[in-house]
Each structure stands twice: as structure tokens, then as C-alpha cells.
Design a protein that fits this description.
The protein is an alpha+beta fold and 269 residues long. It is 19% helix and 36% strand. The strands form 2 sheets. Strands 1, 2, 3, 4, 5, 8, 9, 10, 11, 12, 13 and 14 form a 12-stranded antiparallel β-sheet that branches. The chain has a two-stranded antiparallel sheet with strand order 6-7. Strand 6 and strand 7 form a beta hairpin. The longest helix has 21 residues.
Length: 269
């Protein structure tokens, strides 16, 4: 290889080292107890608890999860017009949502699945430390039907005491999907050209408030979420040492000069 070619390669390497590089980080968050990469911690065995995943063990969870439902003040008042915190949990099939109507307020009741039964819609709130795109959902178990609604926010609205209609109006994206079944479901195929990154995501039983799934029964969805897949844009900053030696504009000048020299050499052969 000629010295001139070596010179051009050196310029290209220097240019790459002095320029920011972005890439997509794909993560699968596993919620099934007993799975090899299950890493969910529970803040307490009570309504209003928090599930979290701290994969780096640095004390700052990359993901937290809460259970929400429009059960109002719960089983003891008969009002189902406002959102209230439930109890979030997991089992061998995935995430669970005990809403405030669960067996007279007990977190040991049978109504532990994410559903839209009895006039209530259960959803799980996923909070990430940075904006990320939701690209897949894996339903670990379902009964009757598995229509799912998802909602994204840049800024989290006040959920307590609010209603789903008001929440939907503050979202940057919402959609519903029919019959996800129990196999990993790739949302990118459905979202098509829409690319959404957000720090806050609601995933739950189907509600027409968040979009028509096209083939659904508004009160027959019961499932557990086994895992979700996300894609986050990461940026590798330029090497400061390389940048100090040669800024991109300087490198471009040298590259142009090198190409000119190569052209002149061919002309003289």
C-alpha cells in the first residue's frame, strides 16, 4: 500500500474519532419470576408500591413500574371515575395489576391480571431514566382476548384523581393493537414510520380512548406482560484529545488536499 493511501486512511480514522457517533441500544426488560435475567425489585407489599430494575447496581433504577386503574377510591365507595394507584407485582407469567377493587382492597385477591373488566381499565406505568422507544411487547399469559393500548408522554401528567380521557389528551403518542397473543409482538411493524421516544409509557388493557385497535371487545381483555423491548438512541462523544489535534474542518482540508495529490499522481503516470 502506498504512503498516500496510508495518509488517507489516517485522515479517515482521525475524522471518525473526532466526530460524535450514534447507535441504537436494544434492551429486553424481563418481568417473569424465575427467568434467567429477572432483576425486578419490589418496594413493598402494599397498594401504591413500586417495581424497579437497577441493572447497573448503582442505586439509580433504569426502569420503574407502577400499577394504575380507573377504580376511583376503590371497593369501599363504588366510584369508578378517577385514577388510583394499584399494587404492581410479578409471577411466572409476568406483570400483575391488583387494582383498588381487588377483593375488598386485598392484594391477595384473584383480580390480579391487567384487564378491562367491570368497567375498569388497568394500565402499567413504565418510567425510564432517559427517552426510549417501545418496540416490542411479549404477553406471557392471556384469557379471552389480548388487545393492548399504549400511551407515551414526554412529561408525566398527574395521574392520581385524573381520568383516562384527560391523560390521552396530554400524550405525544397513543395507539391500540389487537390480539397480541402470547408470542413476542413487534410494535415497529404496526407503528410503521412513526418513531417515538419518551421517558414515560403506559401499557395496559384496551381502551378506545387511546385508539381503535380495529378488532376488539372493549371488556374482554385479560393478560400479563412477560417483557417489553425498547430501543434507545445512544451517542458516543468525540475523543477530546483527537479533537484538540484536528478539528473536522481541518481534517476535511487535509483530506481534500490528499485526494488532489492522488489525482495529480495518476495524471503524471
Amino acid at each position: 500500500m502506498s504512503k498516500m493511501n496510508n495518509f488517507i486512511i489516517l485522515i479517515l480514522i482521525t475524522f471518525v474519532a473526532s466526530t460524535s457517533v450514534s447507535y441504537a441500544e436494544i434492551t429486553t426488560w424481563e418481568f417473569r419470576t424465575g427467568s434467567s435475567n429477572y432483576d425486578v425489585e419490589n418496594s413493598g407489599y402494599k397498594f401504591g408500591n413500586l417495581l424497579s430494575i437497577d441493572s447497573n447496581n448503582d442505586g439509580t433504577p433504569e426502569l420503574t413500574i407502577q400499577a394504575w386503574s380507573d377504580t376511583g377510591c376503590g371497593w369501599n365507595c363504588g366510584s369508578d371515575s378517577e385514577l388510583g394507584r394499584g399494587y404492581a407485582s410479578t409471577n411466572g407469567s409476568g406483570l400483575l395489576n391488583y387494582n383498588l377493587d381487588s377483593s375488598s382492597g386485598s392484594v391477595t385477591g384473584e383480580e390480579h391480571v391487567i384487564d378491562n373488566q367491570d368497567g375498569d381499565t388497568d394500565m402499567m406505568l413504565f418510567t425510564f431514566t432517559e427517552s426510549t422507544a417501545l418496540t416490542g411487547i411479549d404477553i406471557g399469559w392471556f384469557s379471552s382476548d389480548s388487545d393492548v393500548s399504549i400511551v407515551a408522554f414526554n412529561t408525566l401528567p398527574t395521574l392520581q384523581g385524573n381520568n383516562w380521557s384527560n391523560i390521552a389528551s396530554q400524550s405525544i403518542y397513543s395507539a391500540s393493537f389487537s390480539n397480541l397473543g402470547t408470542a413476542p409482538y413487534t410494535l415497529v411493524n404496526e407503528i410503521s414510520n412513526v418513531v417515538v421516544e419518551a421517558k414515560y409509557w403506559l401499557i395496559g388493557a384496551y381502551s378506545s380512548i387511546f385508539g381503535d385497535s380495529g378488532n376488539h371487545d372493549n371488556r374482554s381483555d385479560k393478560f400479563k406482560i412477560a417483557s417489553i423491548t425498547t430501543e434507545t438512541t445512544k451517542v458516543i462523544p468525540p475523543d477530546p484529545d483527537v479533537t484538540e489535534v484536528a478539528e473536522p474542518s481541518t481534517i476535511a482540508v487535509f483530506a481534500s488536499f490528499g485526494l488532489f495529490l492522488m489525482w495529480r499522481r495518476k495524471k503524471t503516470l
